[in-house]
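Researcher: I'm preparing a figure for a lab meeting and need a structural model of a single chain. I don't have an experimental structure, so a prediction will have to do for now. The sequence is pasted below. Please return the structure as tokens so I can convert it later.
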Amino acid sequence: MSSPIIALLVTGEKAFEDFKVFVKSLEAWHPDAILYIATDTPTATLLRGLKTKATLHTRITLDRYVGLTRSDMEARAGHFYDSLFKDYTYEKATVLEEALATHPMGVWFQDADIVHLAPLPAIPVGASVALSPHAIRPGDERLYGRYNAGYLWIRDPELISIWRAMGGKSRFYEQAALEDVAVAAGAALYEFPPQVNFGWWRMYQGVEPPSAIQ
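Model: Understood. Here is the structure written out token by token.
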């Protein structure tokens, strides 16, 4: 398998602490990973001091969000969308585009709080996007979207453009708009199985009781 290319957002001390676990667990399986990180000036200083086998490419593009909580951002109008927080979530699309320009065979986006317990799954030949279903109750899915925006793989830059365009009418930030990406991809969509990107929310929002899910 070639070196995985992973795009991330890492902003603030809490995210940096999460990222240290992310990269250390990733090294166990992919010490040659190449990471494209969108960050802010204070966090970039922390990242420069991090010792890792992975290759880090940092871009300081998130200074406009420094010192703001999610509630702060939700209460402010965005430059591109109806809230600054939605602007922030779509920084994922920007860092993906930057990485994909150099690595056109495909790039991951992963949230910085992921812990890697196995090698990254193989992407089927012919897929243009791979998405992670939430596997939660239908009512919760209607609120938050079918797919988790913290774990995906994409190869077609046109799908990123569609993702951006659908953000204006998305019912839940950038996440629910991934449903439009899935429709646009058609047969080129791959959905990860439930063992991949197993989030804590599945224990409490699944159709089955937590004991069965566990």
